[in-house]
Amino acid sequence: MNEINLLNWKASEIEITYRNKVRPSERLKISSSKDCFSLLLDVWSGKMEYIEEFYVLLLNKSNKVLGVSKISEGGISGTLVDPKRIFQVALKANASSIILGHNHPSGNIQPSDADKKITKKIKDAGTLLDIDVLDHLIVTAENYYSFADSGDL
Q1: End-to-end CA distance of the chain
Q2: Of all helices (H) and strands (E), which one includes residue 58?
Q3: Domain limits for position 120
Q4: What is the domain-level CATH number for residue 82?
């Protein structure tokens, strides 16, 4: 049997950190899709009508916002959404639930088949990780579509 010299093996050390700069009493509470829409408009990059982008809102058990993270940005008709990236951020923030949001530069707020599929995929992954997907909003500068309000979640 060959003896393995562990000193010759190399591996990266992984450190998970989370720094919160907002006191709990100052965190915004999300009570409705309208609250979420307002927050998304405030944090959006300014490219609402130019390219499609995807964000995730991270919430604690009281539905207070722990943070917002841009997951991806793409072209005028789509963006690639990797569920692993969404849950990396959610787990790092110790989020109890998340709300998804993306824009349609066309101004059409109706969900596409791809929007429905990725929402289901993320919701199913959240179930396994005990992180609730509370909603998915499709936003424009003036309006939004809520999967939860429409019964599509």
Answers
A1: 55
A2: strand 53-59
A3: 43-146
A4: 3.40.140.10
